[in-house]
Structure to design on (328 residues):
């Protein structure tokens, strides 16, 4: 799948090749400067500045900071069956929880797929008591995420060359250390807008700008956060949002997961416990493309079974404000 050069018109929004390449650049590095993006992509800096101002100012693209994978605690995938007519209330209740960064409702209107960060312990009130006791809920399936092959922060529009991506990607390595109050205050500000300048962050956290600049450099060099550029998939011409619950022979699970992580349509791939051992989240142009993915891509990786759940509405997705870790 390659969007390069295609003109996409969704409602009143026109996204041309330049817009798509700028979004892809922000996916690589959400804090990349206008000048750096222009230089790497071979574009005029004034054009880049104007286009980014429009994309970011109108809310078409939103760039936030998220925890690096190394700081994300264990998680569980929840599949909650709900009585028709009660779906919105249950979904809203789950989305309001800080430990649930991911909530999708099915197009069929009878189930919710969510991710519970921190994992469920035997005494977890939400998974084992509150949800099953809710009269609107007919069943709850909880699967522990064993391994993450690809997360939302890894997804990239397929419009840049490998060389462009390599130059734009920060390339830093995670350093495991204790974060202090100032670190976490800076990260919290970036969690709302990853492109905030040091001066604005300094005003918000009540620290000198010089201090904030030093902390930003250190946090970035130590990969204490990653950036994520949010775009409504339909505005990219990707009208089908789906979660696939896949069964792969254990001996082929790792190979299949790694292959799917490289697929341009996959924005999430996880090895999980339960009857299905691989959870895959995809964005596709249409149902025919989804059909080819199931019958060719998944089948070619040795999948023996796959259940497809079309997403009717993404209530909450990972990387939104409030998900950065507190000091340990």
């Amino acid at each position: 799948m390659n969007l390069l050069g295609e003109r996409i018109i969704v409602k009143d929004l026109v996204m041309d090749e330049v817009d798509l390449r700028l979004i892809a650049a922000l996916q690589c590095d959400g804090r990349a400067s206008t000048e750096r993006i222009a230089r790497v992509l071979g574009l005029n800096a004034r054009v880049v500045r104007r286009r980014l101002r429009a994309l970011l100012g109108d809310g078409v693209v939103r760039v936030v900071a998220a925890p690096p994978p190394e700081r994300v605690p264990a998680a569980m995938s929840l599949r909650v069956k709900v009585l028709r007519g009660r779906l919105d209330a249950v979904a809203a209740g789950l989305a309001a929880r800080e430990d649930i960064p991911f909530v999708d409702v099915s197009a069929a209107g009878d189930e919710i797929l969510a991710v519970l960060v921190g994992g469920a312990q035997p005494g977890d009130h939400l998974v084992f008591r509150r949800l099953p006791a809710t009269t609107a809920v007919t069943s709850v399936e909880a699967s522990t995420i064993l391994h993450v092959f690809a997360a939302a922060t890894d997804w990239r529009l397929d419009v840049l060359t490998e060389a462009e991506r390599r130059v734009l990607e920060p390339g830093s390595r995670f350093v495991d250390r204790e974060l202090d109050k100032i670190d976490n205050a800076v990260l919290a500000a970036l969690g709302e807008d990853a492109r905030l300048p040091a001066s604005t962050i300094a005003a918000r956290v009540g620290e000198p700008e010089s201090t904030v600049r030093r902390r930003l450099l250190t946090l970035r060099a130590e990969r204490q956060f990653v950036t994520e550029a949010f775009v409504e998939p339909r505005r990219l011409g990707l009208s089908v949002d789906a979660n696939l619950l896949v069964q792969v022979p254990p001996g082929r699970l790792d190979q299949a997961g790694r292959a799917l992580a490289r697929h341009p349509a996959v924005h999430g791939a996880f090895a999980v416990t339960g009857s299905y051992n691989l959870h895959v989240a995809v964005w596709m142009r249409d149902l025919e493309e989804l059909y080819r993915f199931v019958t060719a891509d998944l089948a070619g990786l040795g999948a023996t079974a796959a259940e497809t759940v079309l997403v009717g509405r993404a209530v909450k997705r990972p990387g939104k404000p409030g998900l950065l870790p507190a000091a340990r």
